[in-house]
Design goal:
By secondary structure, this protein is mainly α. It contains 12 helices and 4 strands, in the order ααααβββαβααααααα. Helix 8 crosses helix 9.
């Protein structure tokens, strides 16, 4: 909004820095909580105008975006439920966000990594073309030593979800030896669960003792060294603990 009314970049930078960094704080709350911000806004009419206009558009969508892999499925034409618009490559997009689509009963499915699946298909075709040997994915061993050596070296350019700098660092520290390691760190590598990655790595290498809050959790968490990684584990734990509670009461 500051750019729209022609405010100076330095002035905007000061305002931005005075805003609280805590997520979910409204402009009204920010002004009430921050005396420096309040005084800075009140010092000039254009800053007061900035606040007034910004509060009017606060919370409104600032742009449209397309989900990378979300597909909406309906038994009837989608136009019976939601307005649509043209997207790239002749793909139509819903104008309702995914939460609203689910609220009105439409099914949204995420189909991830299609480009990578195509790449795998190209590789299998090239192997057959160059060697005459026809490979099938189910026949490729899941415990190939050289593959895990490559992953442990962090040389993962072009490997889906394993090519970021942060993930490469994790792979070097983890030194994966089985598919479960890759699945687990991929699930943990997101805000929040990331803090458990060092624990997972230490326990895998025997540098930290694997512990369980209760013995009944061992069958559920044994494969992940006592670290809760998956939603399914949380569901199983909740089911087990409820049964124990009912029996105990």
């Amino acid at each position: 909004m500051g750019k729209v009314i022609g405010m100076d970049k330095e002035d905007l930078s000061v305002v931005s820095k005075l805003l609280p960094s805590k997520p979910g704080v409204t402009l009204q709350q920010a002004v009430a909580q921050s005396k420096p911000l309040r005084e800075y806004i009140q010092a000039m009419p254009i800053r007061q105008k900035l606040l007034q206009l910004a509060m009017q558009v606060e919370g409104l969508p600032r742009h449209t975006s397309t989900h990378a892999a979300g597909v909406v499925i309906s038994g009837e034409p989608l136009t019976s439920y939601t307005p649509i618009q043209e997207g790239q490559h002749n793909v139509y997009l819903t104008q309702y966000p995914m939460e609203a689509l689910q609220d009105i009963g439409l099914l949204k499915m995420d189909f991830l990594g299609l480009r990578n699946l195509t790449l795998i298909d190209y590789i299998l075709a090239k192997v057959e073309r160059d060697t005459g040997e026809k490979q099938k994915l189910p026949d490729i061993p899941m415990q190939d030593v050289k593959t895990f050596q490559l992953l442990a070296s962090g040389d993962t350019t072009g490997i889906f979800q394993l090519e970021s700098d942060g993930m490469r660092k994790v792979l070097k520290e983890l030194q994966p030896t089985e598919l479960e390691d890759i699945v687990a760190v991929n699930a943990l590598y997101r805000p929040g669960p990331m803090e458990h990655i060092p624990t997972y790595i230490k326990r895998k290498h025997g540098l930290e003792k694997v512990t369980y809050v209760h013995d009944v959790l061992k069958p559920i968490l044994q494969t992940t060294y006592g670290v809760i990684v998956y939603q399914e584990q949380i569901m199983q734990i909740a089911s087990k603990m409820v049964r124990i509670f009912i029996r105990g009461s």
